[in-house]
Amino acid sequence: MPPLTYAGTAEEARQKLLAVIDAMPRTEIIRNENTYIHATFTSLIFRFVDDVEFVIDDGTRQIHFRSASRVGRGDLGVNRKRMEEIATRFAAP
In the prediction, which pLDDT does 43 show? Predict the structure, then answer.
């Protein structure tokens, strides 16, 4: 997936991204720094934890991200679907 893009300031983008993450179920912000956010998402049934990291690049006005399961080889597309949902929510006005 391509990085998220934003207009405005990096701080505005960070606040909007934090609001998107906070609105999603079973999430926890692990680290929240100027240009870096690390969050965990826990699955409903089996309680698997996925790590998602975001890096805000103000020079390019992009938010790069990485989403990975902690266990197992495959996730049946769960991480990609989650990132698509985050991208959709982030792009909404």
Answer: 86
For β-strands 49-57 and 36-42, DSSP reports them as: antiparallel
List, in sequence order, every residue forming a beta bridge with 42; answer none if it has no partner: 49
Query: Is pLDDT above 80 for 59?
Result: yes
Q: Is this structure's pTM higher than 0.85?
A: yes
Structure tokens at 79: 């991480």
4 contacts: CB under 8 Å, gap ≥ 6: 17, 62, 63, 65, 86, 87, 90, 91
| pLDDT of 72 above 80 | no
SS (H, E, C) the chain: CCCEECCCCHHHHHHHHHHHHHCCCCEEEEEECCCEEEEEEECCCCCCEEEEEEEEECCCCEEEEEEEECCCCCCCCHHHHHHHHHHHHHHCC
